[in-house]
Structures are given as structure tokens and as C-alpha cells.
Automatic annotation (TrEMBL):
Description of how the protein assembles with itself and partners: Homotetramer; dimer of dimers.
Family: Belongs to the DapA family. KDPG aldolase subfamily.
Protein name from the UniProt record: Dihydrodipicolinate synthase/N-acetylneuraminate lyase
Enzyme Commission number(s) from the entry: 4.1.2.-
Annotated metabolic or biological route of this protein: Carbohydrate acid metabolism; 2-dehydro-3-deoxy-D-gluconate degradation; D-glyceraldehyde 3-phosphate and pyruvate from 2-dehydro-3-deoxy-D-gluconate: step 2/2
Source species, domain of life: Archaea
Matching Pfam families: DHDPS
UniProt xrefs under Gene3D superfamilies: Aldolase class I
Molecular function terms from GO: 2-dehydro-3-deoxy-phosphogluconate aldolase activity; 4-hydroxy-tetrahydrodipicolinate synthase activity
Binding site for pyruvate: 42, 194
Length: 287
């Protein structure tokens, strides 16, 4: 069961800071992250240009071959250009959100999009299903009908929804997001988690996985609840922005800033987060 980081994209004065990205990737992989999901939600993928994503792909694959590159854009030309570029690298897979924003697409058109992706590359193609963000759901039945998907990242609070992919397509990889349910995802034997907290507490995720594998449910639960306490403070401040601050707090270095309209936290918000988290940090260290 893999711990996969939807890695943040560090910006400085509006520009992607590739060096910080590489250092951050190396650090979290050293601490137990198994693979990188690049240009996902936490990576602010939809806010990145084609050129920026190419640079991140190159940077990520200089650190590990276990890279899943999110290639979804609002136009097929950029998608195919990125997929072609990805072919140059020995990476694990490309993933895409379904075509988003436009409500007027038919099921047939969405399926056609994924089939075109599969036809354009020899790399495995994964579905990144995130209905709340994307505005459409590609469920297990539809994913199976598409016929060429090799994996899915399902971001959806419904566990049965995710298990259905595994049931209908036992041969594919199924990953789940949501920091608040990591222990449950490990417990039901999914292929792994892709969660934002892998950016700031990869070591805690490793401990949760170890506890679940040892069937020490109490310990897994105690660790999980501490993550949930972090989320309770960070979510109202804007979770995407908070992740940068949480990296600073837990990992002790400056990971750059997000890109507006994902605005960096204001100084009072940073203080509030740091104060609330210091007690949780102590409790995590004791477990
Ligand atoms: C999760 C999103 C959404 C992880 C990514 C991920 O960021 O690219 O907190 O469940 O809305 O899909 O971060 O997470 P929640 O793959």
C-alpha cells in the first residue's frame, strides 16, 4: 500500500521554484513517501501552464521514477502535448481529471477523451475522479466501459464508490484521497493513499500504515484523530494554502507560496495555525 504525495508546487513572486520543488520531493521521499502525484489539486495543477507542468515533470522524474503526472487541461491540445512529453520519461503513469467545467458534455464524449489519451501514449493512464471539484463523476461502471484505464484516484467521501472500481476492475490500481480517512483506506486494502498530508507529515502516514498492518487499530486511530485535528484548524483558513504553512511548521523549511487566487495565509492566520498545531505536534511526537 503506497503513500503518494500530491506534491505542492512552490511559487516565488508568481514563478514556479523548481529547486525548492526538488528539495521538497527528496525530503518527503526520504521520510517514507513512495511516489509523487504531480500537478494534482494540492499541486495546483489547473493553475499551471503547459510549460510549467513540463518543468515539474522533468524535476519530479529527476528524483524518482515513481511519478504520476496529472495531464488534464481544458483543451485537448495541451493534454496531448504533455502526454507526448511524458513519454520521454520513465514514469509510472499519467492521470487526468475528466474534462471539467463544461456541463454540456455527453458520457460518450467523456469516454472518448480517455480513449484518446490511452491511444496517445504507451504509459498507463489513470483516472483522477474528483466530482466535487470537476463537476462530473466517472464511476466504476463508466470507468470500466472506457476500457483502457489502469488506475484510479478517487476523491470522494464514499468508500463504497472507490471499492466498486476494485470490484469491477480487479487488475487496476485504486487510490483514495482525504486526509481524514487514511487509516480506513489502508484497512480496506486499497493500493494506497494520495493525500495532501504526505507533504507535511509523511512519517505519520508511515506510522498509520504500520499500525494498520500490525492490526493496532487503537494506535492508528489515535494518529488519525491528530491529523483530523490539524484539518479542523487548517480547513477554514483555506486548506490548499495551509499545506504550505504546515510544511514550514513540520518540516522546518520554506516551501514557497501558493499562486493566487490560492492566496498565501496572512500573518495572523499563520500564527493561529502554528499555535494550534504546536500541541498536536507534541502529541504526534509521543506516538
Ligand atoms: C486530494 C485532494 C482533495 C488529493 C491532490 C490529491 O491533491 O491532487 O481533502 O479530500 O478534498 O484529491 O487534495 O482532497 P480532499 O490527489
Amino acid at each position: 500500500m503506497d503513500i503518494i504525495a500530491p506534491i505542492i508546487t512552490p511559487f516565488r513572486s508568481g514563478k514556479v521554484d523548481v529547486e525548492t520543488f526538488i528539495n521538497h520531493a527528496k525530503n518527503i521521499m526520504k521520510k517514507g513517501v513512495d511516489a509523487l502525484f504531480v500537478a494534482g489539486t494540492t499541486g495546483l495543477g489547473p493553475a499551471l501552464s503547459l510549460e510549467e507542468r513540463k518543468a515539474l515533470l522533468e524535476a519530479a522524474s529527476s528524483v524518482t521514477r515513481r511519478v504520476i503526472m496529472q495531464v488534464g487541461f481544458l483543451n485537448l491540445y495541451d493534454v496531448l502535448a504533455l502526454v507526448k512529453y511524458a513519454e520521454k520519461f520513465d514514469i509510472e503513469a499519467v492521470a487526468s481529471v475528466p474534462p471539467y467545467y463544461f456541463p454540456g458534455l455527453s458520457q460518450r464524449q467523456v469516454a472518448k477523451y480517455f480513449r484518446e489519451l490511452c491511444a496517445a501514449t504507451s504509459l498507463p493512464v489513470y483516472l483522477y475522479n474528483y466530482p466535487a471539484a470537476v463537476g462530473r463523476n466517472v464511476d466504476a461502471e463508466m470507468a470500466k466501459a472506457i476500457g483502457c484505464l489502469k488506475g484510479v484516484k478517487d476523491t470522494n467521501p464514499d468508500l463504497a464508490h472507490t471499492l466498486a472500481y476494485k470490484r469491477l476492475m480487479p487488475e487496476i490500481k485504486a487510490y483514495k484521497g482525504s486526509d481524514s480517512l487514511v487509516m480506513a483506506f489502508f484497512a480496506v486494502g486499497l493500493d494506497g493513499v494520495i493525500v495532501a498530508s504526505a507533504n507535511y507529515i509523511p512519517d505519520v502516514l508511515v506510522k498509520i500504515r504500520d499500525a494498520v498492518l500490525r492490526r493496532d487499530v487503537e494506535k492508528a486511530k489515535r494518529l488519525q484523530f491528530l491529523i483530523n485535528e490539524i484539518l479542523e484548524v487548517a480547513t477554514p483558513l483555506g486548506y490548499n494554502s495551509s499545506v504550505y504553512e504546515l510544511v514550514r511548521i513540520f518540516q522546518g523549511y520554506d516551501p514557497g507560496e501558493p499562486r493566487p487566487p490560492i492566496y498565501p495565509l496572512e500573518s495572523e492566520e499563520r500564527e493561529k495555525l502554528a499555535k494550534a498545531v504546536s500541541r498536536i505536534k507534541e502529541a504526534l511526537n509521543k506516538l
